[in-house]
Amino acid sequence: MRAWEVAEPGPIEKGPLRLVERPVPAPGPDELLVRVLACGVCRTDLHVSEGDLPVHRPHVVPGHEVVGTVAAAGSLVRGFPPGTPVGVAWLRRTDGDCVHCRRGAENLCPRSEYTGWDADGGYAEFTTVPADFAYRLPIDPASGADPADFAPLLCAGIIGYRALRRASLPPGGRLGLYGFGGSAHLCAQLALAEGAEVHVLTRGEAARRLALELGAASARGAYDRPPVPLDAAVLFAPVGELVPVALQALDRGGVLCVAGIHLSDLPPLVYQRDLFYERELRSVTSNTRADGRAFLELAARYGVRATVHRYPLAEAQQALRDLKAGRFDGAAVLDCA
Question: Number of folded domains in the chain?
């Protein structure tokens, strides 16, 4: 099978990925072998490729927004016949027994593993996933449903959902979104469907146009002040300099949630200016499977749809370059079939 591996982490402009031929992987006893139809291109894949995240598996295959069909199942798996449509997301495995797992916070499990970081992911024609961590998807191949439309939901959508909940936005509240890529444009649709007033702060002109098309009340530059004080904000851009900018845009009692797995260093915060009046700064770490199921249900209910830019599997490295440069709005997806 064809697969992209991280040959040597480094700047994406210098080509750290290498397209190789590999044997089709064999699923473990509790795993599914998945024929990959489409795989979303996530900023976390860029962090893995460039070395912002430490190497967990040498020559790993990135990709964790996978839509595919079951090709085979391990000896312990039941209920996933060949051809079953499934999604593979970032969280791959947890121990299920630590204090965090027992209290429903499996995203904080210290022995958690991740698709496209600890195990090979979806920038390939096949991948594997523990059956307990696969999402059943309502895709009927006979209906003409496009797998690419579902791929960004499996990380960008799920993480956006968790960040929105962590931001504690009150009903009908004013929400700021800093950065407006794959995750933010899905988060915005959910927030709008739930009655929020959304204000977008982002660098890209195309992204600002998309925000307004989706129903945002305003769309300005990343460092601009929104037109109203914000009840909550989510920072999607991996730019630490924006943390005090976003905190200063909050109303009293507002919450800023940082959604990314990687963030450049924060400048010093000034307590009186940035945090006083009970403003809060929170982070997001991965997601639980309950988050994933809840978001996919809400996405279907509200018609949340990704704006998709398609690339063939052979152009995965170019897709990451374009992501880094902000050359597209919405989300990029690889056609892997």
Answer: 2
In a domain, 115, yes or no: yes
122 and 188 inside one domain: no
User: Pairing state of beta strands 31-41 and 331-335?
Assistant: antiparallel
Q: Which amino acid is at 81?
A: P
Q: Which residues does residue 41 pair with via DSSP β-bridges, in sequence order?
A: 332
Give the angle 193-300-68 at the CA atoms, nearest 5°: 140
Report if residue 77 sits inside a domain.
yes
- 239-290, pLDDT tens digit by residue? 999 999 999 999 999 999 999 899 999 999 999 999 999 999 999 999 999 9
Predicted structure pTM score: 0.94
Residue 40 included in any domain = yes
Give tens-digit pLDDT for 132-158. 999 999 877 566 679 999 999 999 999
Domain that holds residue 143: 2-154+307-335
The Cα angle at residue 182 between residues 209 and 18, in degrees rounded to 5: 125
Collapsing DSSP states into helix, strand and coil, what is residue 317? helix
Contacts of 167 (CB under 8 A, 6+ apart): 175, 232, 233, 234, 255, 256, 257, 282
Instruction: Give strand ranges (E) for 66-205.
Output: 66-73, 85-88, 91-93, 113-114, 126-130, 134-136, 174-178, 197-201
